[in-house]
Input
Amino acid sequence: GRRPSILVVEKDMRSSIPECFSHIPMAKRIPISQANKDVHPAVLVVGQQMATFAIKDSISRLGATLLAFRKVIEAYETPKGNSLSRHFVPHVLNPQIEYLTECRPMCFSMGNAIRLLKAKVNSFDIDTPEDEAKEGLLEMIDLFMNERITLAEFVISKNAAKQIYDGDIVLTYGRHRLVEKTFLKAKENGVDFAVSIIDDPYDRGGQELSKSLKEAGIPVYYSPNLGGLRHNVRRATNILLGAEAVFANGSVHAAAGTADVAVAATNTGKKVTALCETINFDRERVSVDALTYNEIDPEQHSSDGFRLLFDTTRDQYIAGVITEFESGTGNSPAQAI
Amino acid sequence: MAPTHTSHAPSMEKLVKSLKGQPLEASIDAFIYLLKRRQVKGDDCAGATAHILRQVVAKSKWHDVEQLLFKVQSVGSRLVGAAPHEPVIGNIVRRVLGLIRDEASEERNAEDEFGSESASDIQTLAQVTGPPPAARPAPTPLARPPTLATAASFHASKSKSMFNLLSVVDAASAPLTAASTPLSQAAHTSINSLRPEVLDGIEEILDEINQADDQIAGFADIQIHPGDYVLAYLPSRTVERFLIKAASRRKFTVLFVSLEDSRSAAGEGAHAALRKKLDAHGVNTISLASNGLMAYMSRINKVVFSAKVVYQNGGLLVDSGASVAAQAAKAHSKPVIALGGVYKFCPEDPSDEIAGETGDSSTYVSYADGLKVDALEVENTVADYVPPELVDVYLTNLGPQTRHHLAAILADHYKAEDVGFSLIPGEV
Output
């Protein structure tokens, strides 16, 4: 395991954050005994998994959250004299959300999903029968997971795989599930290509990716860090990067180091393509630098080490974003959701 | 990837001692062996090369200037061949060759000592006034003395006047003996005096190498302003001295970056010592445990790292993480300051595609994992190229330079005929 199980007192952790980064949030472990009593056990577990980064990327977090909320809805009984549409959100759903946010700042997809879920609850009449309302919410969650997660992944990897040709050397950074799916899909399509992986030595997801690609018979060049970036970028024929989220101004929010790769690629005239589900698009937030929305890596955070989890790639360094609805520049599909 | 500060001094001393203790051929072989094993690397190569060449001049047999030049060329090309990834070796060889040519020609025209005397006066004057503060330093191509020693220290001008003393005697005795002795006799005596002169010159080069870091640090408070957030790429002795010197004058914040995992024992030790020193001056330090640097750049004011070599086009050979720092800084229009003594200025062009020197990958991939090793073409780059357009200031021991002055500096330090010396096959 990457995360040591030592419980670190949060105050001490935060006190060593340099002042210029002190506005940036950090995931923290809340002992289950200290959690709000209204938090559902399924949510408690998900919160712990998020705090320890056992569930890490945006879509996995979204899926786990929705499944846990499903349990919350199933277990929900409207108190006498109340209606689900009035009672459920403030008294049941919000404590779950607060707890999850405390464990780790919410990712954009969770925010989007929760907004849609609340809108659904509000759409019920005050006298909608409880069973009908619960049924409607569960159905919505299932549909949502099918469309925005499963189908989105399928469509994106299928479309992105079409952009990989025989003889290509495709460069990627770290490990992103959409990029991985795309490579496997392209291989399935019979394309003969190689992958150049640049890894983050503090995360090493790229090693896992290289294993899985090798098992699929895809040749891999592996760089353990950003050293030799220029050389790697020059050798590559195209660059596929996974995005964690996309801001309203087209900036891409992704694993720290992604922007460095995108800049190097753009500077050498290579096309950078980002992959992202539309549920990760944020229509309201605008970010021009990585210090606006970010998270401190609690694992790397000590009195003499400091690390941000994400960086922001401005739209001029991204040639295109492939989503399940359409492909375009970072800016246009922001309208899609 | 220079070794840590603490491990450096003894190993360099030991190296010099062991080289001195052996017969010439053996010590050259020993040095080549160390170079090939990368046990002497980075900034240490320059000093070690100068030491070896001093042995060559002192111990080998030669009867005229041509023979000496050939000796130095052939040993030099063997050293360069042993460590093609350390172009600084070639620089030092060229400096020594240039030095020999200078001393020889001074011997030959025995001589307009007024010219050289006034030159050394100028240098002494410059020395008294101290290093020029903000202004561009003295060495412009216009007013330059006819020597290698733009960086002439007090030591340099002193030894020069010693030389003049000797040559005065020579010049004075020449008319007397000229009538009775044939010319060859004069040539012979001058060859005898050439050896000590060249050895002195090599000492000067060694002094220059040893003092470069401190002289560069002397410009720190001009470059670093109060309240700055400075991104510094480590490990590098030059950068460390620069920061400590700046810390004695300014309050600022340093963000350290290193490609090496800062949690590794060696990395932590090296940074810890530096952090302590900076903390003592009230300078904030933050270690970034990070690969990518774009994320932090909006907070940074300037980026500082040291060059392994400065090519004649202004491009740099650097420890590979430094190139990521330079690129990120450029993307945010933040100034990039590359530190390096003029002895690192190399009169060659970078090869078109520097793939970067690759190093040990076992720290990143466990070789116990058979599948992984089989699967991976692991490329752990340890040296990288930074194109000239990413560098704003070249901070040398002569002060800050721009790309447009590189040609003048190279012309000051190298002779045109030595630029391609390494093409001369080494004698075996």
